[in-house]
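S.,

Sequence below, as promised.
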Amino acid sequence: MSPPHTHALDARYYTDPELFEIESRGLFSRSWQFACHASQLAEIGDYVTFALNGENLFCIRDRSGDIKTYYNVCQHRAHELLRDAGNTKLIVCPYHAWTYELSGQLRSGPNITAVPGFDRSKVCLSEVRLEEFCGFVFVNLDPQAEPMETWFPGVRDEVSAFVPDHGHLKPVQWVEIAERCNWKVSVENYSECYHCRLNHQTFSTGVVRPETYDIQPQGHCLRHTTECQNLDQMSYPIDLDANPHAGHYSSWFLWPMFSFQVYPGNILNTYHWRAVDVDHVVVWRGWYAVDGMSSKVLADLAQQDRQTTVAEDIDLVESVQRGLRSRGYRPGPLVVDPAGGVNSEHSVQMLQQWMRDAVDKDSNINRQKRRKL
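The prediction came back faster than expected:
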């Protein structure tokens, strides 16, 4: 007797606003999320603000040279402290001029000494868990979260091997892409190449050799590996002697919403997703070079990527989202080849299990909380 087929997730996982709220309160608040690139915080006092799961946060380099992340809210009466990006010697609230050190500790405030027993040492900005990972800053709103190495074993060393000069990289460009689909539709599309030959001709014939493409789980990482296309068919020139991995493409999708990609020739680029609501997600496509110095090869490749793979994927994921709302859709069986390979959806099977587990876990937590009320 053959084993039962694995079917795709029910459409409600992508279309139900209540399930999206469960993810927002749970998964997004206890997983590692991209904040900024460390090169944006090169000097003491450099800061970057950003939004994550409805929270306003900022990263800043303190006087000891460490990067810290804080909730962007004054502990006095909740005004936001910083906007956009810049450099500051002190963190001063625009509302009542309460002033904090870069360490987050309260330094001063108008007339606070007139308050009997006022203890400045007990007032400090609320800090957020942070890790620097190959030059990228990630945060986790859960102070008890497992470290990134536990979530994504071996990834730090592998990225370092593919891009040994990652410590000197700076962003060359970030492109913001709005997609009218659920975030899970977008990351599922990213996490399989079953559709690549039919929909990504340039990528399949001018960058990688699809017959060598495979994706395997590595903790909560999906590791994509393949060889580059034959040199006479590559859509851009590469030097195979530049690095032991120069002839390979590798990608590390870090659950739930970030991916490192190294294109043949050791060109690092990234994806990071921000879920807007049940039907919308924003994707940032980043490209990086040593000291931020672009080259014609990188610039041409980034343009090629935007005009082909990125544009092609927008049409695909938005069509899927419309289809998920159709009365006629019934989740079909995934094509799971035990041997893996490019024509298998075993990576989607794993990804959907993580999606299902996250919703089930947080639904159970919510039920337990309701029972206690």
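Residues 33-140 form a domain with the Rieske Iron-sulfur Protein fold (CATH 2.102.10.10).

Coffee later?
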